[in-house]
């Protein structure tokens, strides 16, 4: 869409992983209930950690589970993601069930293949395609999981491992330097601006959440009339990033040890 050599889609770096995380709203949604999509880029460091770049944020006001799954498929392809993270507690199961079967996208003239679950055998059995690629991380947003996610995200922020987009004012200034951007329709310009506005909204959302500790667990709640769908999506992505980081370290430890003893 933006035919400008200064703004090219960034190719994947060596060892990079891209995650798409969803926090799913009920059908129809409400002013404080929307489906949020977060794309997180994991860049490996020399000390076997991942820098987490949140490169895209968008929301969808609920809707049919088919349409929410279709939106996820499109973003997954557009950003060349490796895994998708879905909260399969409650309403999320409907979106999940659309992801484990073939799905037709009439607008893009594409048939998306069935995916299966990588981390939950029971959820994987819902996919009936024996050769479906293991793409989906199923998360169950229990009190324990949510507490861990809150702790992990706070730790990641403190250690400078989480990077967000610039604010919408600076982004608009940067985009306006492009003649190709200036020549776009207003509706198309809004598509480029949206992730930056969404990032600011996500920061405000996180600042205004209430964090309480009960029975050794952190509970995160939104104030009346506020939202936490953006926070939830980024916390899911960061939680899985931590798991992938541990896997990377384990592989490195095994390789290093075997090299030493041989």
Report on this model:
The chain is an alpha/beta fold. It has a single domain, classed as 2-Layer Sandwich (Nucleotidyltransferase, domain 5), CATH 3.30.420.240. Helices cover 42% and strands 23% of the residues. It has eight helices and eleven strands. The protein has helices at 65-78, 92-99, 121-124, 143-158, 168-176, 179-182, 186-207, 229-261; strands at residues 17-23, 35-44, 50-60, 83-87, 103-105, 110-112, 116-117, 134-139, 162-163, 210-214, 217-221. The strands form three sheets. A seven-stranded mixed sheet has the order 7-8-4-1-2-3-9, sandwiched between helices. A hairpin with a 2-residue loop joins strand 10 and strand 11. Helix 1 packs across helix 2. It is globular. The N and C termini lie far apart (53 Å).
Write out key terms for the chains shown.
single chain; 262 residues; alpha/beta; Nucleotidyltransferase, domain 5; 7-stranded mixed β-sheet; two-stranded antiparallel ribbon; 11 strands; globular
